[in-house]
């Protein structure tokens, strides 16, 4: 249990609760849920420019990372078909993957196919079920994809000024504006209460909020004097109690609740808002193909990691379909902006390709 681990090392409740947020981030779990300690380890085990456990902003926004990968690929002769939805994986008579068919009827032939989509989309939608072992299909259907995340992007006309560290008269960014700011994290019990509400189908009345202001370190993201604020919030269940849907009214009511919380820490925040973009779990599933809205393509619980990701006997990136590989967050070692699953899958595919 994460709570027990933090109790062993720290005395300060706000510090323990702030660290706990990285143990439940993207997970339908609380600080006292068994296995939550691993998720914290997952978020601090890497390094950035030699600094262990460090994170950074991507200049130009997260999309710039995808563009950088695309430019590196095209420089080596790769052809990228943007905005072309894949209909299904093409299979030969021997069941070997032979490419993909696009929804516009185009067929792209290849000796190998690597899927960065979730295991659910890859194996339940893009591959004929009769080509897969029944126990494998059942395992993929049973993957826990519950997600507590609602992402809210906000445009503001001035920098938030927090009671704990007010802005200077010139309104220039201060050091804390460049960091990740955690709110509603005064105690691990607050996080537990927020989680418990979601397990009963109710969005948290006092949501866990991780607030970042990327425009402070990347001014090109917003006009001068204005900023973009990224809010990563929990807990919001995919399915609401009583069969209620995430309609416009419900989505805005939750966002207003989040803004009310921020207002308590930074008076004037609500008055500074000039635009909002609310992405609930169903929105994340519909727009980005994340099953259940889960940013990791499936829970990072111990029963869904290592040799069991995405299923036992299929953690080596190969799938039951020869020539079809899984290279996204649903593969080992799971989610996060690190590229480990893709790199590992590429190396396995290259070894197999040399034998074809």
From TrEMBL:
<keyword id="KW-0285">Flavoprotein</keyword>
<keyword id="KW-0274">FAD</keyword>
<dbReference type="GO" id="GO:0005759">
    <property type="term" value="C:mitochondrial matrix"/>
</dbReference>
<feature type="domain" description="Amine oxidase">
    <location>
        <begin position="33"/>
        <end position="188"/>
    </location>
</feature>
<protein>
    <recommendedName>
        <fullName>Pyridine nucleotide-disulfide oxidoreductase domain-containing protein 2</fullName>
    </recommendedName>
</protein>
<comment type="subunit">
    <text>Interacts with COX5B; this interaction may contribute to localize PYROXD2 to the inner face of the inner mitochondrial membrane.</text>
</comment>
<comment type="function">
    <text>Probable oxidoreductase that may play a role as regulator of mitochondrial function.</text>
</comment>
<dbReference type="GO" id="GO:0016491">
    <property type="term" value="F:oxidoreductase activity"/>
</dbReference>
<dbReference type="InterPro" id="IPR002937">
    <property type="entry name" value="Amino_oxidase"/>
</dbReference>
<dbReference type="InterPro" id="IPR036188">
    <property type="entry name" value="FAD/NAD-bd_sf"/>
</dbReference>
<comment type="similarity">
    <text>Belongs to the carotenoid/retinoid oxidoreductase family.</text>
</comment>
<dbReference type="Pfam" id="PF01593">
    <property type="entry name" value="Amino_oxidase"/>
</dbReference>
């Amino acid at each position: 249990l994460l709570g027990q681990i933090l109790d062993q090392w720290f005395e300060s409740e706000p510090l323990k609760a702030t660290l706990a947020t990285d143990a439940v981030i993207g997970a339908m779990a609380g600080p006292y849920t068994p296995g939550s300690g691993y998720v914290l380890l997952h978020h601090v085990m890497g390094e950035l420019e030699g600094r262990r456990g460090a994170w950074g902003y991507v200049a130009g926004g997260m999309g710039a990372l995808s563009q950088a990968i695309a430019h590196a690929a095209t420089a080596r002769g790769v052809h990228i078909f943007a905005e072309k939805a894949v209909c299904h994986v093409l299979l030969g008579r021997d069941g070997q993957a032979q490419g993909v068919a696009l929804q516009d009827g185009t067929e792209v032939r290849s000796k190998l196919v690597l899927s960065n989509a979730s295991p659910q989309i890859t194996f339940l939608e893009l591959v004929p079920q009769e080509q897969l072992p029944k126990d494998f299909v059942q395992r993929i259907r049973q993957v826990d994809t519950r997600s507590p995340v609602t992402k809210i992007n906000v445009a503001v006309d001035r920098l938030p000024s927090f009671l704990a560290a007010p802005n200077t008269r010139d309104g220039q960014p201060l050091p804390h504006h460049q960091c990740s700011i955690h709110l509603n994290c005064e105690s691990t019990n607050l996080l537990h209460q927020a989680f418990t509400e979601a397990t009963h189908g109710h969005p948290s009345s006092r949501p866990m909020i991780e607030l970042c202001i990327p425009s402070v370190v990347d001014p090109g993201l917003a006009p001068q004097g204005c900023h973009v604020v990224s809010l990563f919030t929990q807990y919001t269940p995919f399915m609401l109690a009583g069969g209620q849907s995430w309609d416009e009214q419900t989505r805005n009511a939750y966002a207003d609740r989040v803004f009310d919380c921020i207002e308590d820490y930074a008076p004037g925040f609500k008055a500074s808002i000039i635009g909002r973009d609310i992405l609930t779990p169903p929105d994340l599933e519909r727009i980005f193909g994340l099953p259940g809205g889960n940013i990791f393509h499936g829970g990072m619980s111990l029963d869904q990691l290592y040799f069991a990701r995405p299923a036992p006997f299929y953690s080596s990136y190969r799938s039951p379909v020869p020539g079809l590989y899984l290279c996204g967050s649903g593969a080992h070692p799971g989610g996060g902006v690190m590229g480990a699953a893709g790199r590992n899958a590429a190396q396995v595919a290259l070894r197999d390709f040399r034998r074809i």
